[in-house]
């Protein structure tokens, strides 16, 4: 499903060269639910950006669904990203002027899916995430948990190979966080591959595997959380 081979990534921050990833190798299998953990600066966000085809490594190989995407140009990466990857962000990234249906439909705008089918898919997914009664509400009319449910529906609209969730509960209270994680676990049980970044042990516990990172490297790819 996802295979990273000796991935490196560095960049300049002021006068300093930062080695964000230093030879990272890892495989995520189909239908896995994997959580990445690590302190700030460990490289987990940089790795998430590469897995999401939002960035490219300096060296190494990245196979997404058996296709080497590490050295593709931006236009090709964009097409692959839209076809294979659904994103869930900590800050939701919803457009304020669009209602829930409009936000969920967005990833299909540049595909050959008709407007009618896009709307039908959006409605079905909003019902699936428990927002059948809020479909025509705009983000400012919703709670944080409801906005994250819209974001999850949007992540699913292109029927992605993998969902990448970057701190999906970071802006939510504890009760809503539990509800969102239950929804993600349910999606996983239905066959969805999920890769998540989190700094919270109780959120990582929902994954079936935890990968611990430190200083741009994988410290442990089967990390045991303290009970």
Using brief descriptors, characterize the structure shown.
single chain; four-stranded antiparallel sheet; 7 helices; alpha/beta; globular; six-stranded mixed sheet; Rossmann fold; 227 residues
What is the helix tally? Answer: 7
Largest sheet: 6 strands, mixed
Principal-axis shape equals globular
Portion of residues within helices:
25-40%
Distance between the termini: 30 Å
- Our Rg estimate from Cα atoms comes to 18 Å
Summing up helix and strand content along with how strands pair, one would put the structural category as alpha/beta
Q: How much β-strand is present in the residues? A: 25-35%
Number of strands: 10
**Could you give the order of strands across the largest sheet?**
6-7-8-3-9-10
Instruction: Tell me the name of the CATH homologous superfamily.
Output: P-loop containing nucleotide triphosphate hydrolases
H/E series? EEEHEEHEHHHEHEHEE
* Low-confidence sequence ranges: none
Fold and architecture overview:
The chain has a six-stranded mixed sheet, with helices on both faces. The mean pLDDT is 93. α4 (115-128) packs across α5 (144-156). The chain has a single domain, classed as P-loop containing nucleotide triphosphate hydrolases (Rossmann fold). The protein is of the alpha/beta class and 227 residues long. The chain has seven helices and ten strands. The chain has helices at 44-51, 74-84, 100-105, 115-128, 144-156, 174-189, 201-204; strands at residues 2-13, 16-28, 33-37, 59-64, 67-68, 85-89, 162-166, 193-197, 209-214, 217-220. Belongs to the ABC transporter superfamily. Macrolide exporter (TC 3.A.1.122) family. Residues 2-226 form the ABC transporter domain. This is ABC transporter ATP-binding protein. Keywords: ATP-binding, Nucleotide-binding, Transport. It holds the Pfam family ABC_tran.
């Amino acid at each position: 499903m996802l295979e990273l081979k000796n991935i490196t990534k560095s960049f300049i921050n002021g006068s300093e060269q930062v080695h964000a990833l230093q030879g990272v190798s890892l495989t995520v299998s189909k239908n896995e639910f994997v959580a990445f953990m690590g302190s700030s600066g460990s490289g987990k966000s940089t790795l998430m950006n590469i897995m999401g085809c939002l960035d490219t490594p300096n060296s190494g190989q990245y196979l997404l669904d058996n296709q080497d995407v590490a050295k593709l140009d931006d236009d090709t990466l964009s097409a692959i990203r839209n076809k294979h990857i659904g994103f869930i962000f900590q800050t939701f990234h919803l457009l304020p002027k669009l209602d829930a249906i409009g936000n969920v439909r967005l990833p299909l705008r540049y595909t050959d899916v008709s407007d009618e089918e896009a709307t039908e898919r959006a409605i079905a997914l909003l019902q699936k995430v428990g927002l059948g009664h809020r479909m025509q509400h705009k983000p400012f009319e919703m709670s944080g948990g409801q906005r994250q449910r819209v974001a999850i529906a949007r992540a699913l609209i292109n029927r992605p190979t993998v969902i990448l969730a970057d701190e999906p509960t970071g802006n939510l209270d504890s009760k809503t966080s539990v509800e969102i994680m239950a929804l993600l676990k349910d999606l996983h049980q239905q066959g969805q591959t999920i890769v998540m970044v989190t700094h919270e042990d109780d959120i990582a516990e929902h994954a079936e595997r935890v990968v611990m990172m430190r200083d741009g490297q994988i410290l442990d790819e089967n990390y045991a959380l303290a009970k």
